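Q: May I have one protein plus its fold?
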Amino acid sequence: YKRQAQVKADLLSMLRADIPFRGSDTRVLLAGQDLFVLVATADALRREWLGSVLTHTPADTALPASDIAVGIEAAAADDPRWTSSILRAALPEEFHNALDPVNDSLQRLVTAGVLTSSAGGDDATVVYSPTEDAAPLVSGLAGASATVAITVYGMTPDGPGYETTLLARAPDTVFTIMISPIESFVATASPSAVTSLVGAALGFLPD
């Protein structure tokens, strides 16, 4: 087995942590299941874009809930090409068993100012797209060059608990998504925070 220092170095290398990037460590608190749906939304938009490249047609930048729900189902395939699949594999089964309907999470993301909704098409289907402020986050998650997800289990005052950390390397920053029963958030991580997060998540390994 690799020791903690070796694994930490490997993960930081994957995230290109040695290349300067921006990060403020400012957190946006959201429910864990809403963060998961947000990641699935980013992947759904990426699928739409890839399809448009193949067909030489414009890509939709707003998608109905049904397309996002299909992406959530596809995440169960453990396909590392998709950020939502990587995150799903790291999260405990109890998390997935307690998920609200996709529409509920999408509405909360609209209320939080992360997504915007509008009626589109001839049948006035409600479609969702990132707000201007959230567009860099969504595009960064969709186009991440490297993604790492780690879950640490431990005891809390209320019993067994977990903390899942997703780190996604975008061109000019590293996005952090933290999901736990106590607190969940998304942030742009500073270089020092990325190093600390990886080190803390690997604390169970021998030095």
